[in-house]
Amino acid sequence: MQISTKLFNQQTLERLSELHGEIQNRQARIATGKNLLHASDDPIAAANISVAKEQKQELARYLDNIDRAKNKLDLSEGAMKHTVTILTRIYELTIQAENDVNSPADRDAIKMEITQLKESMLDVVNTEDASGQALFAGYKVNNNAFEKDVDGTIQYMGDRGQNYLKIAENMTLATGIDGATAFLRVPSENDHKSVFRVIEAIEDGFEDGDFPDIAITDLQRGIEHFTLQQTYIGAQINKANIQEEALQRRQIIMSENLSQLEDADLTKLVTELQTMLVNRDAATQAFAKIGQQSLFDFLR
After folding, report:
1. Does the domain made of 69-257 have the CATH classification 1.20.120.80?
2. What phi, psi does 168 have (nearest 5°)?
3. CA–CA distance, 100 with 159 (Å, rounded to integer)
4. Backbone φ/ψ region at 230: left (φ over 0), alpha (ψ -120 to 50), beta
5. Coil/strand/helix, residue 166
6. With contact defined as beta carbons under 8 Å apart, do 49 and 262 qualify?
7. Number of C-beta neighbours around residue 165 at 10 A
8. Burial label, 257 (beta-carbon count in 10 A; 0-12, 13-18, 19+)
9. pLDDT truncated to tens, each residue of the chain (300 aa)?
10. Which of 127, 129, 170, 182 is least surrounded by Cβ atoms within 10 Å, i.e. has the fewest?
């Protein structure tokens, strides 16, 4: 009798200990809202959760790169648009200056405005992003793209480097265009010219009192050239927007999959917890009642 009672007590205590552990597990899962508290609970599910989280973080990095690239592209597109505006105004002023009714003072005023527009052009080519890096210096982002020498000559200080950011596993996005491609390769009759040389050719016309057809044609070509650069940048922005939408859809799917793997079924857990609490209380009461019985209780 003593052996069986001792064995019963031992088994009951072991069962109550197991039940207590299961209750604590359910309570912890309800409190955290997570299905797994430790990787050892389900190693396969834990590994899948880890992979899903890494993929989600990678998608977040791609989206961050797209945001950074779009900011730079927006600034670059604005610079191209401003350049077209400047060249268009210079073209209008040049046509106006060719009119014989202009007095010398009128021509001086027109030339002064063109010179001011050239100074504005220098500001455009040295546009910086929000972090102070030059947009059109290629890889030399910590320097001005263009500098004016003591004699007034404007030189390109950058290189032909093209910056890209990764926006998918196998996709990159250009963050702009280098200054050499944009501002040094305005198509001319037999070659290419810098945008400043195109403007200076018009300035020289005021000294000679004549504007060569090639100078005016180069202005028109310059407007077309920068319109094409603006179109290229716009295409990159469209590419960024399309990829951003695709990544956002993938993020939603990834979050849903991760939720299925990681999030606890609270309704199910609460039901299980309530059942376990009832079983524990019943087992505790039964154990206490049996423990109080003596040999005389069985002899009645």
Report:
1. no
2. -170, 175
3. 44
4. alpha
5. strand
6. yes
7. 19
8. middle
9. 444 566 666 776 667 677 666 676 666 666 666 665 565 666 766 677 777 788 889 999 999 999 999 999 999 999 999 999 999 999 999 999 888 788 888 889 999 999 999 999 999 999 999 999 999 999 999 999 999 999 889 999 999 999 999 999 999 999 999 999 999 999 998 899 999 999 999 999 887 778 889 999 999 999 999 999 999 999 999 999 999 999 999 999 888 777 676 665 556 656 766 777 777 766 677 666 665 555 444 444
10. 170
Residue with tokens 């899903």: 52
Locate the domains of the chain by residue range: 2-33+266-299, 69-257
Residue 86 and residue 180: Cα distance in Å, rounded?
Answer: 19
SS (H, E, C) 56-103: HHHHHHHHHHHHHHHHHHHHHHHHHHHHHHHHHHHHHHHHHHCCCCCC
Q: Which residues, other chains included, contact 16 with Cβ-Cβ below 8 Å and sequence gap of 6+?
A: 280, 283, 284, 287
Assess contact for 29 and 35: CB atoms under 8 A.
yes
157, 137 in Cβ contact below 8 A?
yes
